[in-house]
Amino acid sequence: MNDQHPQHAKKSLGQHFLRDQSAIRRIAAAVPEGAVAIEIGPGPGAITESLLARVGKLCVIEMDDRFAGHWQAIAEQNPLLSVVHGDVMKELESTVAAVQPQWIAGNLPYNLSGPLTAKLAGYSLSGGMVLMYQREVAERIAAEPGSKVYGGLSVLVRHFYDVKRLLTLPPGAFSPPPKVHSAVILLTAHGRTPACDYEFLQKTVRKGFAHRRKTITNNFRGEISAEQFEAIGIDPRKRPEQLGYDAWVAISKQLFGLN
Ligand code: SAM
Which atom of ligand 1 is the closest one to the Cα of 15? Predict the structure, then answer.
């Protein structure tokens, strides 16, 4: 659609429209042909057009009236497409329940990336997700234990998914260009999630990473003792960023009495 011109971009909605054709192809190609998918924030449709050419069903969630209206008009002619006009933070749960997607894709608005990813990572899709972030956020998501940027999100995304950085893009890949680089993260369902509730895991990492420089014994003071950490095979002197996904699951089970 024509509204791709930078002067039409709304900063408040994090609108930086992707124009790098190779990136568009690679993002769309991550979603298998015939899949049922949701796209978050289609905007003028850089990724949407390519997705529509391959998926079995696509539902787009868009807050901007102009873009939502545009896709609603297309949806009237195209039975593969449906549109949710609203805020993804409010509409995601009901949309996932109604559409039952195998895949979720999106060049996400930067201002929502943290809380939206914490929400997204809680959905166990049979396929996965292909999501664009500002590079620093993507690095946090893909970080391994021991890294300075490893944190709660790095743990949470691993609950249902394997994590891989698919590509990195310079500001010039977008119009208008953002101030920072961007990166695309590919999450693929691994099918080996342990019996641990995602909400419990989320509460556990929130608490455990509350003070990154403190030991886990300090972060869980009054709830898990040093002896209890030792009993579940975790060194109580470790700091949160030193613990891998499995250790966080063990802590969550201890915290919520599931051991
Ligand atoms: N997919 C397009 C592309 O790659 O060129 C646009 C990406 S742009 C970074 C983010 C898109 O998300 C915009 O279309 C914006 O209007 C939409 N958006 C921003 N906040 C939103 C929200 N809370 N709920 C739904 N869509 C939102």
Answer: 8
Residue range 94-108, pLDDT digits in tens: 999 999 999 999 999
- Taking the model in full, what pTM does it have? 0.95
- Alpha carbons 46 and 48: distance in angstroms, whole number: 6
Both tokens of 240, joined, read: 């949160």
Task: Give the C-alpha distances (Å, rounded to integers) separating 153 from 89, 135, 201.
Answer: 17, 14, 11
| C-alpha–C-alpha distance, residues 171 and 66, integer Å | 24
3-state percent breakdown (helix, strand, coil) of the chain, nearest 5: 45, 20, 40
* Amino acid, res. 230: E
CATH of 198-256, one of 1.10.10.10, 1.20.950.20, 3.40.640.10, 1.10.8.100: 1.10.8.100
**CA–CA distances in Å: residue 240 to residues 132, 210, 233:** 26, 9, 15
CA of 113 to the centre of ligand 1 (A): 11
Which residue's C-alpha comes closest to atom 17 of ligand 1? 41
